């Protein structure tokens, strides 16, 4: 049963929300609007394409961190459980910064999880629980893929004069990713806790 808004509601008064609204797509993914940000359309288009790829992969990395956080096992459970959650939150902050940069350039940020899954280059993990070293290695591989893309995209943004994108990629994505990769890699070093 549909409820037809009263004349008062249609004129802006009343408190009945207009439910089940439909609308046309007003900007296609992969396009940029003209914004007065001092950058050429071609530069903004290129940056949005590169940022959206890194954004999709970062959203997957965030989800991988949460999965590993929930499924952690073994004697280092507590430390890794906390560390992975901290890293996940930092990745989530990067997701927001990347999406806002795409929007700032007049683009459309990739946000639908199904769309993200279509364009990510990060391999899907098994549905079940992997051994801890495999989980950490999977996170490291994802980090490296994002870091390689971010270094390349930052260099291109610098060449094209897109200082904002370059700064975001270097100051946030790369520095955060490198630090997190270091923390993870050190958990895969096989050293004795004490010497006999």
Written overview of the protein:
By secondary structure, this protein is mostly helical. The protein has a single domain, classed as Ferritin, core subunit, four-helix bundle (Ferritin). The protein contains six helices and no strands. α2 packs antiparallel against α3 and α2 packs antiparallel against α5. The longest helix has 31 residues. The radius of gyration is 22 Å and the shape is globular. It starts with 6 loop residues before the first helix and ends in a 10-residue tail after the last helix. 30% of the residues are buried. The model has no long low-confidence stretch (mean pLDDT 93).
| β-strand number | 0
* Count of helix runs: 6
The CATH topology name reads Ferritin
Which structural class should the secondary elements be placed in?
mainly alpha
Percent of residues in β-strands:
under 5%
Terminal-residue CA separation:
77 Å
The helical percent reads 55-70%
Count of the separate structural domains: 1
CATH C-level label: Mainly Alpha
Rounded mean pLDDT is 93
CATH superfamily: Ferritin, core subunit, four-helix bundle
- The CATH level-2 architecture is identified as Up-down Bundle
Q: In angstroms, what is the radius of gyration? A: 22 Å
Low-confidence stretches: none
Order of helices and strands: HHHHHH
Shape: globular
Largest sheet, in brief, is: none
């Amino acid at each position: 049963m549909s409820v037809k808004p009263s004349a008062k509601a249609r004129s802006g008064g009343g408190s009945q929300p207009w439910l089940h609204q439909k609308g046309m797509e007003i900007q296609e993914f992969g396009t940029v609007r003209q914004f007065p940000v001092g950058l050429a359309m071609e530069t903004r288009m290129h940056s949005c394409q590169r940022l959206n790829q890194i954004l999709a992969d970062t959203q997957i990395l965030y989800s991988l961190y949460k999965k590993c956080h929930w499924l952690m096992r073994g004697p280092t459970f507590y430390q890794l459980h906390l560390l992975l959650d901290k890293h996940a939150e930092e990745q989530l902050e990067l997701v927001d910064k990347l999406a806002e940069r795409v929007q700032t350039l007049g683009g459309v940020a990739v946000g639908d999880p199904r769309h993200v899954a279509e364009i990510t280059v990060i391999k899907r993990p098994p549905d079940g629980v992997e051994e801890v070293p495999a989980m950490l290695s999977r996170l490291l591989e994802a980090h490296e893929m994002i870091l390689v893309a971010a270094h390349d995209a930052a260099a291109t943004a610098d060449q094209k004069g897109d200082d904002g994108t370059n700064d975001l990629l270097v100051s946030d994505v790369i520095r955060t990713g490198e630090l997190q990769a270091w923390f993870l890699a050190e958990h895969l070093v096989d050293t004795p806790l004490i010497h006999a």
